[in-house]
Specification:
The structure is a homodimer of 309-residue chains. The first copy, chain A, has helices at 13-24, 37-43, 88-92, 113-118, 160-172, 182-199, 208-211, 215-234, 243-253, 260-266, 273-287, 292-307, and strands spanning 5-9, 28-32, 45-48, 55-57, 61-63, 75-78, 101-105, 124-135, 140-153, 175-178. Chain A has 309 residues and is an alpha/beta fold. Chain A is globular. The interface between A and B is medium-sized, with 28 and 28 residues.
Amino acid sequence: MNSPYILIVGAGGVGAFFGSALARQGARVAVVCRSDYEVVKRDGYSIRSPLLGDHTFRPHDVFNAASQCTVAPDYVILTSKVLPGADRAALLRPAVHPQTVILLIQNGIDIEPQIAAAFPDNELLSALAFVAIGRGEPGSVNHQSSGTLTMGRFPSGITPAAQRIAALFEASGVGCKLVENVVGARWQKAAWNTTFNPLSILGGVLDTGQMLRTEDNQAFVRQIMEEVCNVAAAAGHPQPPQLIPNMLQATRAMPAYKTSMAQDYEHHRPMEIEAILGNVVRAARKLEIGTPALDAIYAIAKMVEAARG
Amino acid sequence: MNSPYILIVGAGGVGAFFGSALARQGARVAVVCRSDYEVVKRDGYSIRSPLLGDHTFRPHDVFNAASQCTVAPDYVILTSKVLPGADRAALLRPAVHPQTVILLIQNGIDIEPQIAAAFPDNELLSALAFVAIGRGEPGSVNHQSSGTLTMGRFPSGITPAAQRIAALFEASGVGCKLVENVVGARWQKAAWNTTFNPLSILGGVLDTGQMLRTEDNQAFVRQIMEEVCNVAAAAGHPQPPQLIPNMLQATRAMPAYKTSMAQDYEHHRPMEIEAILGNVVRAARKLEIGTPALDAIYAIAKMVEAARG
């Protein structure tokens, strides 16, 4: 397999960015996109990136549904948002063949089991993206900073298929760290994501600088992170004691950042409240871990979401 | 004392409305106002009211500080917001003489002790206003609905001075219910105020309809109200079991309402977070009552406030 065929499903900014990186290494990268289909089919993606340079990415094929893909892909990468009521397995199914490896590049906790159950005979990889990408005009992608992946087999392990695609990412300049315990890595990211994403929509859009402005604010952020880490530990993924101070310090050191959920809120797009927050709260209930701050934040986030209609 | 001299300090919309009601009954009603001073001095207040009719209220005297009042008032009524750092006693002091009765028409919990300590020899009355008043141009008052007071001596009792001013309110058409236990009444109002006011600023301004939109939303609102009632009970002011269902039902039945805190938030005015919410949380800590939802809401409200700078 010298030139793997890779189908990216739900190719918004994140899918286009990582897809373009793979295409530069010779992979045949096709995309399934809906809202930007006409533009991308005609012109490709216009990508601005400090890491990959400003360039146009012309996918090998452009589809508006996975069923249009007549090749059996080596990899199917799902980069859509994880939203209640969206049947992710159905999105992928027409393109998943016996040898196809499925890779999820998605946010949230407990997002793999549904896909694992739908495709029990396929290898499933799970990845966390650390990347800031803004959305602009249809077909245009504004990569702002970072651009690395943490990846592993679900539920654990590192496989040849993971190593193969990781090598392509690494060669392109996009870092890709392979980990034995990707679920633990997902919990680690949740300590940040589950804290800052929901908080950022609860006050008419707050950035990280605003959320950490006072000592009281910082103490509250620390409490939320501790609750997430308590759930992670009960779920079998204890986090290192330095995680929270390190994350707080790193977040305060970086320029004020508007989370993906805040961006979705501002642009009246669906928000990943369930994947990022609801699933953590549900895990806490199942494991009988108290999460009073998360519970309240979840309730208020749902109120905000319902108010948008 | 056929024509009592009543000085209203901090006479915004609430002060002007209740002051006008007293003036119609023959009281000499003077006001201390700052931001609207010039307009009110020249033209009086232009009041639109379904209860009192549309009319102009020309105060007996218009001051921009209590120190300008050379008469010894029979009553001083404080209608300002209760904000940290604002010395309410200092606002009143120049106008408080040995026989002056002080009446607070203000929001919040535990707002009397500071005034009682500052004026230990004066009679102190405390009142809750149930009234919706919007602010417009300087000197104009838009009374929207309701317009009643619940009043009593602090810390308890009903006095002749309370009866006298209550009779003036009643005669004017503004209901004024006298209660033996005004602190208990304040806790009862807090079940509503401490719930809906802070929540209404946590999602880019939510009205009561939005806060009660789904079953989940309603369950959360109920939880917050229960926490307030638990603190009230521990403070010696148990509320009737039907309070919460009745309040929820009444709130759902009324047109969607934008709380005073939401209005302050929208207009970038200081918010009564400490008087309405912070004091309840502090009472809970002192009484060792758990209030997980209130704690989180308080922390987020402070984050929102700090973010406004």
